């Protein structure tokens, strides 16, 4: 069973009309487990229905201060209820069950320049990075993309830390006014590393801009904070588990991983967004539509691996080495 910790909410910050900051501490005031910038916690959130929702939230506080973790939570009115429950029912004094810090988005050591691009609530892991980089006097620039100024969470603190290295980009929700990602990556210092966290469209746009600018993939770092919505073309299919002989039906609007968990089959997994590669599974037979961001062409085509948290069957059944 995964290790967990009980943390108490010591403060709630109304960062924007839709974003709240939650300051979490040890109930007895002890130092919290260490983490590095870019880390997140999995938080168990009690819903009104009585169910427990597991949600991942990035840590925005400084790794040098282990007295607390700061989480930023955007209320998603069209979501599945986790963020709404955090906003409506989690207040000062509430005990929360959380994982130990996890990190698939760590800063590369000794980069000559860190180009940070945040979209909305994606500022939370980048704020922790800014704290580290500013303290170490590292060379960095931060582009914080929001609809308007009132949507920019923790802005006073970011301005204090980043100073002239911050560019606040407000597009008013007009795609034609979006930040020029091609220019950002083209004009970045040589051998820079780019870090992006935000809506899926922003992340994917930075990944594609990196390809157009011939950036090495290992210098383009990203973290998605939500799983992808089902595509209109998705359909139901079956997976056959070679080792057990079990057959599992996968609905059009669920992942293979969720279908496996529903049948009490629990492979190794973590991010559920196709970023970490922990759930990579050997495909014995079948036609895979790969949707992950971590497997190499060799992993997919020669080792016959797929990330069962996001990838699906293109057509027909899949036989997996499970």
Number of strands: 16
Shape: globular
Task: Work out the radius of gyration.
Answer: 20 Å
Helix and strand run: EEEEEHEEHEHEHEHEEEHEHEE
Brief descriptors of the model:
322 residues; alpha/beta; Elongation Factor Tu (Ef-tu), domain 3; Rossmann fold; Ubiquitin-like (UB roll); six-stranded antiparallel β-sheet; five-stranded parallel β-sheet; 7 helices; globular
Overall description:
The protein has 322 residues and is α/β, with parallel strands linked by helices. The chain has 3 domains: 4-99, Beta Barrel (Elongation Factor Tu (Ef-tu), domain 3), CATH 2.40.30.10; 114-224, 3-Layer(aba) Sandwich (Rossmann fold), CATH 3.40.50.80; 237-320, Beta-grasp domain (Ubiquitin-like (UB roll), Roll), CATH 3.10.20. Helix content is 19%, strand content 32%. The strands form 3 sheets. Strands 4-3-6-1-2-5 form a 6-stranded antiparallel β-sheet, covered by helices on one side. Strand 10 (193-198), helix 5 and strand 11 (220-224) form a beta-alpha-beta unit. The longest helix has 13 residues, at 123-135.
Note the topology.
Layout lengths: L3 E11 L4 E7 L14 E7 L5 E7 L10 E6 L7 H8 L5 E5 L14 E6 L3 H13 L4 E7 L8 H8 L3 E5 L10 H7 L5 E6 L1 H13 L7 E5 L12 E5 L5 E4 L5 H7 L17 E10 L7 H5 L3 E3 L4 E9 L2
Parallel strand pairs: 7-8, 7-10, 8-9, 10-11, 12-16
Antiparallel strand pairs: 1-2, 1-6, 2-5, 3-4, 3-6, 12-13, 14-15, 14-16
């Amino acid at each position: 069973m995964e290790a967990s910790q009980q943390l108490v909410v010591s403060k709630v910050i109304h960062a924007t009309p839709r974003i709240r900051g939650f300051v979490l501490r040890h109930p007895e005031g002890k130092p919290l487990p260490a983490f590095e910038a870019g880390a997140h916690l999995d938080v168990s959130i009690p819903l009104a229905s009585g169910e427990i929702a597991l949600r991942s939230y990035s840590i925005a506080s400084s790794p040098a201060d282990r007295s607390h973790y700061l989480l930023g939570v955007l209320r998603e009115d069209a979501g599945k209820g986790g963020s709404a429950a955090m906003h409506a029912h989690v207040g000062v004094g509430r005990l929360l069950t959380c994982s130990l810090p996890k990190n698939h988005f760590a800063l590369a050591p000794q980069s000559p320049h860190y180009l940070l691009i945040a979209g909305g609530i994606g500022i939370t892991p980048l704020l922790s990075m800014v704290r580290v980089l500013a303290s170490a006097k590292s060379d960095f620039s931060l582009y914080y993309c929001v609809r308007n100024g009132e949507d920019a969470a923790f802005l006073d603190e970011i301005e204090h830390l980043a100073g002239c290295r911050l560019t606040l980009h407000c597009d008013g929700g007009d795609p034609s006014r979006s930040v020029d990602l091609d220019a950002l990556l083209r004009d970045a210092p040589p051998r820079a590393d780019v870090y992006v966290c935000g809506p899926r469209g922003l992340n994917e746009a930075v990944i594609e801009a990196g390809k157009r600018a011939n950036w090495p993939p290992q210098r383009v770092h990203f973290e998605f904070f939500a799983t992808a919505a089902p595509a209109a073309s998705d359909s139901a299919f079956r997976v056959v588990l070679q080792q057990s002989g079990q057959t599992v039906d996968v609905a059009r609007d669920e992942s293979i991983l969720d279908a496996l968990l529903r049948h009490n089959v629990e492979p190794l997994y973590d991010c559920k967004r196709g970023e970490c590669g922990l759930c990579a599974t050997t495909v014995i037979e079948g036609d895979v539509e790969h949707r992950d961001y971590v497997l190499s062409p060799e992993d997919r085509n020669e080792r016959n691996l797929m990330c069962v948290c996001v990838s699906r069957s293109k057509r027909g059944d899949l036989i997996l080495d499970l």
